[in-house]
Structure of SpoIIE family protein phosphatase:
Amino acid sequence: MTAVPLPRQPAQPPDRNDDVSGSSDATPVFALKELVSRLNREQHKIQDLLSSLGFALRSFSNLNQFLELIPLMASRVTDADGGALILFRPNGQVKLERLHCQDMPWGQDVRKALETATRQMTASLSGLPPGEALARSSQVVTMLDTQVARHLGTEIQIFGTGILIKNSERGRLYVFSRDPDYEWTETRQKLVRLIADQTAVAIENDELTVELRKKERLDRELEIGADIQLRLLPRQCPTIQGIELAALCKTANRVGGDYYDFIPVDYGRGHPHSDSSTARWSVTIGDVMGKGVPAGLIMTMTRGMLRAEVLNGHSPARILQHLNQVMYADLENSNRFVTLFYSEYDPQTRILSYSNAAHNPPLLWQASTDTINRLDTLGMLIGLDAETQYQDATVQLHPGDTVMYYTDGFTDAANQHGQRFDEENLSRAFRWACLQYDDPQLILKHLFDRVHQFIGVGNIHADDMTLVVMRVQP
């Protein structure tokens, strides 16, 4: 915040024969009292004006209304003839925002001079990117001060100070007087700086309000997206003959990239209706690389395409192959990929057919032998290679057998020491739960509790966690 150096007429010293009070026969005591009284009146006037400005800062919700007062207040508290507020726009434009002059005819000349100065400044910055133009604010200020002084003329006494927001100069507040005896005392300069600081606060508050509204709008959109995504996940597990199901998805953010689904395989092909407990059902789990809204959008796309593909009645491997070919172009452009494990269960034979696209292999606990096996086949990520081939596999399930589908949010969960929960701990916790509980819901709850205990109280896991437990009834 600097004063613009301009040639000024030297102030003439008062005539020693003149009395301060304006009366030739006034006593020195009376003259002193008049001087003190005048100073008190000036001080009260300044306090009232600044108090009004503070009230406006607290009360006005419209920035333009507040800025309208700035040149007026600055000229009033300094007994100047006028004031001008010039702001630097983010697009590199230098604009005369507000102007106040007590003498309206003279004010038109001042406006023309200042508009000419700002146009020339904008033209000189037009070849620079907006970010670079703002980065060179010190040079811009020096050039602007010079242009303003040149166009207003040497007979005008000017003081200019910066509008500083986070150490970045966002504009200039100028106050000027035509009085050749007018002096920019330290008190007047401080008053102008004070008003400039109030202006900076108002501008920053307005920008924060705009950002807050954008955030609130984004939050509402995220809430809607999270609600839609939640509705796309199964509201409840289907009734399938001979098995019990439990499933839960906990997203790290409001919108996640984990996916699980139960799809009636025979629906629409002349077979039993999808609600029939004897119909074949697919149990699917997947994970989109990444988190947040982009992952959620891809998850939604995957769900729709997979459900359409299941209706064709192909084998699990062929379904994954077709899904990969259809989604390849979109996923390649997004630089995101999907891991997916697709299985179909036949209640009549208790055979689980499956194929894997690089997802974490589900764990099968066999009740008769108290052993755990991984259900896996070779296959690449969905969207990585359009020509990827997938493999089919089957497993015969028996009463008491339990299959656990999960995403890597479980195995990648880390404690405060950076240690991962990993598949070995998950397998151990899964086996213990299968021995202790017959209800898949209790097994699911135990596994989530075990992971949360491992992470530690107060620690937040940064990845989505999804679990599906399928148990063959005894």
